[in-house]
Amino acid sequence: MTEPLTFMMGKFPAPLQANRRYCKNHMWCQTTDGVLRFGFTTYAVRLMQDVYFLDWEINEGDTIALKQKIGHIETSKAMSDLFAPTTGTLVRFNPELLNDPSAINVDMYGNGWLFEIAGSDAETISMNDYHAFLEAGWEKTQNMLKGHM
């Protein structure tokens, strides 16, 4: 079995779990009961900091396209649009997060999952490839965070 990896965001660790696939929009993907379950990676949560509010623009049963705008997220840093990590049919949202999204902040790989899609994981990448993707973009991310863009 592949060992988990940790991406260091300066002095802050962002662990990546080996039993997941990853998306370049900083979501993880895991096949659960025949559907793809998605959530935010530790990297994303560390950048966003506290998640306060989620708002979905799609409904269960809707067909969604890759990179389609599917909702909004409000964090201590900003309000941002959310985009579909793959093509498929939305099966369900995590009902617990609709009332209280705080699980995203503390258990992003467990109870903090976002939604499930019936579709293919062809748009996802391996843990090793995601780690390399983070490494390749880390300097640019640091400059953006420091306002040097």
CATH architecture classification name = Beta Barrel
Described by strand count, sense and barrel closure, the largest sheet is:
6 strands, antiparallel
Q: Which fold name fills CATH's third level, the topology? A: OB fold (Dihydrolipoamide Acetyltransferase, E2P)
CATH superfamily: RNA polymerase II/Efflux pump adaptor protein, barrel-sandwich hybrid domain
Number of helices: 4
Shape label: globular
Strand fraction = 35-45%
Which class in CATH terms?
Mainly Beta
Poorly predicted tracts of residues: none
**Rounded radius of gyration (Å):** 15 Å
Number of E strands: 11
Report the structural category.
alpha+beta
Strand order of the largest sheet: 3-4-5-11-10-7
Roughly what is the average pLDDT, rounded to an integer? 90
N-to-C series of helices and strands:
EEEEEHEEEEEHHEH
Portion of residues within helices: 10-25%
The number of domains:
1
Ends: how far apart? 40 Å
Structure report:
This protein has 149 residues and is α+β, with helices and mostly antiparallel strands. It has a single domain, classed as RNA polymerase II/Efflux pump adaptor protein, barrel-sandwich hybrid domain (OB fold (Dihydrolipoamide Acetyltransferase, E2P), Beta Barrel). Helix content is 23%, strand content 37%. The chain has helices at 42-48, 95-99, 103-106, 127-145; strands at 5-9, 12-16, 21-22, 27-32, 35-40, 51-56, 63-64, 69-75, 79-83, 88-93, 115-119. It has a 6-stranded antiparallel beta sheet with strand order 3-4-5-11-10-7. Strands 6-8-9 form a 3-stranded antiparallel beta sheet, with no helix packed on it. A two-stranded antiparallel sheet has the order 1-2. A hairpin with a 3-residue loop joins strand 8 (69-75) and strand 9. The longest helix is centred in the last third of the chain and has 19 residues, at 127-145. The protein is globular and about 40 Å long. It starts with a strand and ends with a helix. 30% of the residues are buried.
